[in-house]
Amino acid sequence: MFEPNTGELQEKLEKKRRLIRVAMGQERADLVLKNATYVNVFSNALCHADIAVAEGLIAGMGRYSGTTEVDCSGKIVLPGFLDAHIHLESSLVSPAEFVKAVLPHGTTTVITDPHEIANVMGTEGVDYMLQATEGLPVDVRFMLPSCVPATPLDEAGAELDYRSLERFYAHPRVQGLAEMMNFVGVVNGDAGCLEKILSAQSFHKKIDGHAPDLPINTLNAYMSAGVYSDHECHDLDDAIAKLERGQFIMIRDGTAARNLEALMPLLTTQYADRCMFCTDDKHPSDLLEKGHIDHIVRKAIRLGADPIIAVKAACHTAARYFLLNNRGGVAPGYLADFVIIDNFRDFNIEQVYKEGRLMAENGVMADFPAPEIAPALHRRARETFHLPTLSAADFETSASRSIIGMVDGEITTVDAGRAERADPDSDILKIAVVERHKNTGHIGVGYLRGYGLRSGAVATSVSHDSHNIIVVGASDADCAAAVNRVAELGGGIVVWDGGRSVAEVPLPIAGIMSDAPLATVNETLEAAKAEAHRLGVGRGIDPFMTLSFMALPVIPTLRITTRGVFDVTTQRYT
Amino acid sequence: MFEPNTGELQEKLEKKRRLIRVAMGQERADLVLKNATYVNVFSNALCHADIAVAEGLIAGMGRYSGTTEVDCSGKIVLPGFLDAHIHLESSLVSPAEFVKAVLPHGTTTVITDPHEIANVMGTEGVDYMLQATEGLPVDVRFMLPSCVPATPLDEAGAELDYRSLERFYAHPRVQGLAEMMNFVGVVNGDAGCLEKILSAQSFHKKIDGHAPDLPINTLNAYMSAGVYSDHECHDLDDAIAKLERGQFIMIRDGTAARNLEALMPLLTTQYADRCMFCTDDKHPSDLLEKGHIDHIVRKAIRLGADPIIAVKAACHTAARYFLLNNRGGVAPGYLADFVIIDNFRDFNIEQVYKEGRLMAENGVMADFPAPEIAPALHRRARETFHLPTLSAADFETSASRSIIGMVDGEITTVDAGRAERADPDSDILKIAVVERHKNTGHIGVGYLRGYGLRSGAVATSVSHDSHNIIVVGASDADCAAAVNRVAELGGGIVVWDGGRSVAEVPLPIAGIMSDAPLATVNETLEAAKAEAHRLGVGRGIDPFMTLSFMALPVIPTLRITTRGVFDVTTQRYT
Lengths: 574, 574
Fold this sequence. Notes:
Oligomer: homodimer
Largest interface: A-B, 68 and 68 residues
Strand order of the largest sheet of chain A: 6-7-8-9-10-11-12-13
Distance between the termini of chain A: 59 Å
Number of strands of chain A: 28
Structural class of chain A: alpha/beta
Number of helices of chain A: 17
């Protein structure tokens, strides 16, 4: 409904009239892509026409002239790409810096689940991300985090129930409820899970899934509860079982998980209408070296997909699924979001337009104004560490503790016996998680084998999903010092040795994101990795990413929590 | 958001828990379709499984047992059908009687545009239809009439602007704004048209189109304004031009217009995802003899369509387009709306289930409670005639008037000169439209050639789109008497001869719908037609349908309006 006296209706009416006049050819367009060959996602073919743009929208395809005309002969015009599921925080940079990284790769819309920052700041984390993405030249849409904390064992910064989420559904950029990871809760009829689903349904919102390899009846139960998509399929049979029961499949190819090759048979006329692309998590070096959704499309075409099918999965299906009905195709009235490439084989992205404005050319971004964040929220995001200054004594153990055994090239672990003290010469290190949200003083301590550190300590406040501080050290004193330094930075990654911080990546936004550009973050991160390896961390190990999963008490076998070592298989503290 | 203290959340929670337990196999289903072969609209294949139902919803597909089990061996199970665009009033019966006619044909959802009753009763007509469809075993969804009155020349019972429509968008069964027939208004930037579009868009609602054969730029303009579908395509090129610009195509095959044959090439993998079926108008005999959406599917398969593609167009695409995300497929959590047929070739509909209840078997309907209509609204719908008692003098003309010349087998007309009085022997009859909504006393008079009536008069209150009383007679006295009888009936069709009504079809609901069953209405209608033919109306002419279009001042050449004969080509009264 239009607010009386605001002129809102009149303004929209004038915009629409101008668009119509341009479409009719009665007035010059703002922009015309002349002689464009474009992917028609509706007729599944290449079409040829001038594409006219006015007021940020496509006016029509035909013969048009415009104030700006771009000759597209020999190029291919595609609709802008959508990432159907990402945790933007995983890029380690602010939303504005993330946008600068992905837009030159053709991404014009992303659907983010602010799960990480919500685990730190609760609903204020969602508010922060909404403000930090307002008006950016990539349209950042939100799915509300469904599982904060991730498990009952977690000591996160907040607990979100359906009541705390409800106010966000009225926000114009909130599309629904994010991955319902607690599938056990759903199929057991857990009230907390089902209330969140019912609430999202009552607002006619989407609900994403996260449930690999369920038995058929369990899958039926999970879906009957109201879960409409899945991005966890790593094999074809699992994907088809979900697809043929009505779930949309998000084919994921990101940093931590890459499922495209296994799921290539979905990119055929039989299945492709139910498939879209997502990255889930994209780390800085991966974004910089490989790209974003463009990388998935390029790879899919190289693996044999029909280019039109691959492009549709990159734009159209996600737009339909998320009810973003004004994008994902070249059509009158749609957003003028375009990617211009040289050809399908090389798939070099030459230009990217967002709502009719040229925002990136050959990888170089145009400037855009930074979103304004309310001062109180800005401060709140930078004051998320609440813990005392620690000393070696805080990490001492009076009795033996379990040793978590790392497995080469995997994030699973094994039970490697018990120890009473760290002994780097025998590859036994102290590992601990320090609660940092609520000053509880909780510190869970254990031992780690297989990491390889010889001296000093490595600490990080990026630790899934609660983002407490995880530390691994050769001595209790090193552990304490590294953790203190992380807290002093207001969050980040610290490599500590010889009584000083030898490398660090400050992440002052909620302790999980930098405010520096992606390239800068990547440089300091790579330098810190090199320092960690110099101190002995095995070459096959990502020194920080590996640690960041050590506190996630859902991956077998042993994990470290704020209350000590936990055995995921027996569901007991050891 | 859930209303506190109503128990709404708790009730939904318990329903969901039960559905989950049934899906898990922990509890017996209410209904199981055992050994079902079903059309899987997601994987575009036939699948085989037991389909379990609980709480009116599909719990899962697999191996299940239930309180009721139906062996489906050798049958094919389809999702219930949707009619994407119909004016329910065209059936001449009440919604409850319409439902009894279409449900045995497999239709479980219809999208109706209450354009006809809105022209009589305005928003109260919409209210009436919403109440008259509440809880029916066919889910009747609404698109709000966009063009009341249909043209500025019309004297309808109401004028609807965007403000009068807005309150309906909050109704859970209103899907959007119905066919925007005034495409000239839209592409000329007419404020009234664009305000209705903007209002619908502000509620994130669908907007249907109606615009045959526009030139490309005009089509771009119409679509850029925000029109998302079309059901007026009668040739393939027009349909493809719209489809490839992003419109969904409703392939229409009803009583007045039958476009399926011309559009068969759309029912292929290249285009079918953007195509659905509709009937637009279905008259009683056509519904009784041929069926409904099932008739279109049957015909499409006979004409060579892949049965799975034809079935998807009958259920899935319309559900997706109208954002009815809980139907149009066999999937956990979806409505248990099923059609069971013998085979694709014969396509005999053996059973129809609505939300898990067997509602029709071999054409025989189960009982269901009639919806309650508020007494005031009930009365209002039966008091829609406001005109004086007429006499022959009201139809006399002091000077010559134009003769509308009928064209055999068409609804177009030609200019057939002028006349000063009716002369049945020379095939010149009096024709008139009598304003009947607001007691204006407006009576437009002219002459008609080609109808063939020898004596008496034929009058009907079904006259598009304003539903004033149209009458054709051998004398002024017969005209007056027939019109008076229509008004006395509170609406309907009257064949008058020898000073009495020789046949009549009472249509007491707003003057356009009966409250009798469809078969009864059809019988009286056929009897009335026979009487009209007996009085001389040509055998090639539908005596009432032909008249019902005579007052629609958009079809060339001459039409009769409440202000006299109008020339559509010159846009002038003659």
